[in-house]
TrEMBL record:
Homology family: Belongs to the mandelate racemase/muconate lactonizing enzyme family. GalD subfamily.
Pathway stated in the Swiss-Prot or TrEMBL entry: Carbohydrate metabolism; pentose and glucuronate interconversion
Matching Gene3D superfamilies: Enolase-like C-terminal domain, Enolase-like, N-terminal domain
Organism: Hirschia baltica (strain ATCC 49814 / DSM 5838 / IFAM 1418)
A Gene Ontology molecular function term of the record: magnesium ion binding
Domain Mandelate racemase/muconate lactonizing enzyme C-terminal, chain residue ranges per copy: 141-270
Record protein name field: mannonate dehydratase
Length: 415
């Protein structure tokens, strides 16, 4: 075979011949894209958007997949630009999750073709393992303290603490199950009551107890879940300073990025934002004005590796580190890919790691593992996660939505 025919045969091998969307619900819903090439290489991408799964599935099936078939799987950048610029309607969680799924599956294929674990293709290891934080939550302060100590016992070196708030029936992040938490709990959104004053009066007392019990070494985190105004968030950040938080997350809604300036002016508690962002433009002002310390965008909701890499590079200019979202509504495909990304990215901070249920882990065979508070990424070519489609078929889609929040007088609030 001469050089030209060799090149053209590999081009043939690289042709994308099929792409299909799998929607399954092994304890919670996941959307997975599976891409196959002429040469028989299969790549997997996560396309899960909690509570809006079928919108992404339809965006892929009806709009992107027909144009993807026949393309060269090696041209990841051009395919990304084609679906981003080519849609005319740019950005948004549905669009960007669909593009992310294609991008992730194509990086998986490229790494498999190169016979390398994904982190090698990205530029190699910047660290041996990836620091993760787990979720400790309790119905009240003493229960939360117990849970934090249990997580410490399991080996976690960074722990997020959430708690039930006196006077409120339910609180964000507090689950009935000891290991798993899923807020998307019913077909139509369930309604939760919110009271910022009760929350603000309670949280500093909670962290005083937690810090006292856990000692100085363990990193502690907390998620405000978009509930406070900038002024309230400034007060909370300030009152938590004695307890040395690793970060305060989503202190106020970030559609108005400028809002973080006020919080910043009042507190040295580090700030993390970005799990619901889907493009570099959503975080540009926050990063360039140095209003945050950690950027939480993820592979699945922020346009895949191709786009997340650009966000991380922009953040690196300002010493802002990554702290990717890793709740259970991001599938093991996203988690595995994130661990490769985290192993490479120079300005890594921390990775969220909420455990998936056993059923989910079985449906998505994967090779990453947890060891002494860190995730270790394995050496399998690709990102190391697949989908057992036969097993997945036993768990059909189960429509569920995230809750909404209201104040006592009925006013709609941010959940
Ligand atoms: C987190 C998040 C999640 C979200 C969930 C919504 O910090 O892990 O806030 O718990 O609420 O991903 O689907
Ligand atoms: Mg969060």
């Amino acid at each position: 075979m001469n050089a030209t025919s060799q090149a053209s045969s590999s081009m043939r091998d690289r042709k994308i011949t099929s792409a299909r969307v799998n929607v399954c619900s092994p304890n919670r819903n996941f959307v997975t894209l599976i891409i196959e090439t002429e040469g028989g290489v299969v790549g997997y991408g996560d396309a899960t958007l909690n509570g809006r799964e079928l919108a992404v599935a339809s965006y892929l099936n009806d709009h992107l997949i027909p144009a993807l078939i026949g393309k060269d799987c090696g041209q990841i950048e051009d395919i990304w630009q084609y679906f981003y610029k080519g849609a005319y309607w740019r950005r948004g969680p549905v669009t960007m999750s669909a593009i992310a799924a294609i991008d992730t599956a194509l990086w998986d294929i490229k790494a498999k073709m190169a016979n390398m674990p994904l982190y090698q293709l990205l530029g190699g290891k910047s660290r041996d393992s990836v620091l993760v934080y787990g979720h400790a939550n309790g119905t009240d302060a003493s229960h939360t303290v117990e849970e934090v100590l249990r997580y410490k016992e399991m080996g976690y070196q960074a722990i997020r603490a959430q708690s039930g708030v006196p006077g409120l029936d339910v609180a964000y992040g507090v689950s009935k199950d000891k290991m798993y938490y899923e807020p998307a709990d019913s077909h139509l959104p369930s309604e939760q009551l919110w009271d910022t004053r009760a929350y603000l009066n309670f949280i500093p007392k909670l962290f005083e107890k937690v810090r006292d019990a856990v000692g100085t070494e363990t990193a502690l985190l907390h998620d405000g879940h978009h509930r406070m105004t900038p002024q309230e968030a400034a007060r909370l950040g300030k009152s938590l300073e004695p307890f040395d938080l690793f970060w305060l997350e989503d202190a106020t809604p970030a559609e108005n990025q400028e809002a973080f300036r006020l919080i910043r002016q009042h507190t040295t508690t580090p700030l993390a934002v970005g799990e619901i962002f889907n493009s570099i433009h959503d975080c540009r002002e926050l990063i360039q004005n140095q209003l945050i310390d950690f950027i939480r965008t993820t592979i699945v909701h922020a346009g895949g590796i191709t786009h997340l890499r650009r966000i991380a590079d922009l953040a690196a200019l300002y010493q802002i580190r990554t702290g990717s979202h890793g709740a259970t509504d991001l599938s093991p495909v996203c988690m595995g890919t994130a661990i490769h990304f985290d192993t490479w990215v120079p300005n890594f901070g921390i990775q969220e790691y909420m455990r998936h249920t056993e059923a989910t882990d079985e449906v998505f065979p994967h090779d990453y593992k947890f060891e002494s508070g860190h995730m270790i990424c394995a050496e399998t070519p690709g990102h190391g996660v697949t989908l057992d489609e036969k097993l997945a078929a036993k768990y059909p889609y189960d429509p569920r939505q995230l809750p909404i929040a209201r104040l006592k007088d009925g006013t709609m609030w941010n959940w």
